[in-house]
Amino acid sequence: MYRQAIRRLIDEVAETETFFRAGIVAIDITEAAPFTGDRTGHEDEIIGTKEQTDEYAYQWATVQLVGNAVPLVLDARPVRKGESRLEIVEDLLDSAKELVHVDNVLMDREFDSQHVLEMISQRGLSYVVPKRMQTSEKAQAERLLQRDQDRYETDRKLHLGKNEWHETTLIYRRKENSEHDDHRQYSVFMSNRGGGFLREYGYRWEIESGYRSIKRFMAATTSTDFGLRFFYFAFACLLYSIWRAVDLLVQVELTGEYERSPMVTADNTLTLLKKETGIG
């Protein structure tokens, strides 16, 4: 149902000359509000929280348009216990490619698996993803620190199994105003198109601001029911996407062009929705 709704939305905005069915997508996982108590019947859906506490949470995965395109949530899905990151990314990319032409994929470090990266490369897509630092990366960062070097690139082969390897480029970048005095001054990224694509990773942070906006559209609930909570999240993602699509249409109508800073507010959209449908 979500995919059908977002397709209709994209078909509408695609009639303008300012929206192109192509762009950069970002894949991420977010947590639902944590809870405690009885988990009977939902053991396969409860993942836990990213913090080590006695609370539990459902997790949702999304793929969003970022960059210069209008920010739309192309798909949202639950994360179930036992699912691999490869399965999640494949599913979301399949959904995204049915709607738009995907050029580049941005992900968080929890997706730094070589099998995920190989799958993306096999699809002919480029990627940028931060790498979790292992012993060799920490040692290299320490050497860069001693040389007072801000940036460094090196090719790396990641083992896929048997005699198969995934070729990538590691990009070390020094953080600005870091409070640390060791290897933690550096971040390490991986890309199959070299360091020139690293600047695009900044677009991934749009997901964080997007999630904050999505929460404004979410209905409050004390229920721990898996299906209900996911419906509320997916519906909020759809409302957020409607808001950004309406904003694009209004901007194009009034100015003939599109700027990413919204002209229409989320509150305006909620008010209009309530007036037209009675929801809200």
From TrEMBL:
Domain Transposase IS4-like as annotated: residue spans: 73-223
Keywords: Membrane, Transmembrane, Transmembrane helix
Family annotation (InterPro entries): RNaseH-like_sf, Transposase_11
Record-annotated membrane-spanning stretches: 226-243
Keyword tRNA processing annotated: no
GO BP, one annotated term: DNA transposition
Listed GO MF terms: DNA binding; transposase activity
Pfam family, one: DDE_Tnp_1
Protein's recorded name: Transposase (TCE33)
Organism: Haloferax prahovense (strain DSM 18310 / JCM 13924 / TL6)
